Task: inverse folding
């Protein structure tokens, strides 16, 4: 079955460490997204990519970095520059970047202490 | 940037009741999405619509473009419908979605 896999489900890090969240899809989708979810707030867009080797900043990109070297993979690195990294991170993909249904992974809950 | 408001924020109902969740937005859109998030955190896309009405099983989604308003209805609600329902919109020419804060629905047996 096609889908999006995020790993790990739970991740714990010490303050000051960079951490990379994995996102893999086998849906042959061109567009991929990273969202952050905090309690009481709507999902917010961190980065998105419409094609391989290209990506754009979303609304809250500061302190994060991404790469898109393969169509199937869109890893997110949370750097030590991110002031409040503890959150639930969701990866999504869609066939194209414009008006296509989104498919989501199951998320990674990152806790930084 | 669009502002998406959902109501109610929380809703508790008895099994079998007809459920309505509302979503309004501030700026014209190209599409509206209804999503379902279960306690584990994963999100499933229920509907994407730009006009009219769509139905899937016991779920019905409607949109009124002129009034900038959409509703999600659940008929014959069941405890397994308990989840957070999220409305999201795509602005014209934009990449990515703007999300509402979600409606937390609990269906009691």
Result:
């Amino acid at each position: 079955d096609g889908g999006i896999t995020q790993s790990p489900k739970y991740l714990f890090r010490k303050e000051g460490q960079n951490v990379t969240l994995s996102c893999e899809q086998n849906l042959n989708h061109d567009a991929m997204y990273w969202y952050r979810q905090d309690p009481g707030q709507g999902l917010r867009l961190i980065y998105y990519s419409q094609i391989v080797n290209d990506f754009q900043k979303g609304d809250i990109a500061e302190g994060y970095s991404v790469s898109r070297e393969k169509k199937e993979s869109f890893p997110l690195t949370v750097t030590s520059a991110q002031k409040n990294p503890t959150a639930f991170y969701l990866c999504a993909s869609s066939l194209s970047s414009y008006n296509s249904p989104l498919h989501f992974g199951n998320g990674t809950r990152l806790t930084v202490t | 940037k669009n502002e998406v408001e959902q109501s109610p924020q929380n809703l508790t109902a008895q099994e079998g009741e007809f459920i309505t969740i509302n979503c309004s937005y501030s700026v014209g859109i190209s599409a509206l999405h209804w999503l379902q998030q279960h306690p584990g955190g994963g999100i499933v896309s229920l509907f994407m619509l730009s006009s009219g009405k769509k139905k899937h099983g016991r779920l019905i989604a409607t949109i009124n473009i002129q009034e900038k308003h959409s509703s999600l209805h659940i008929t014959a609600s069941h405890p397994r419908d308990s989840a957070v329902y999220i409305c999201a919109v795509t602005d014209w020419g934009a990449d990515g979605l703007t999300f509402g804060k979600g409606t937390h629905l609990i269906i009691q047996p």
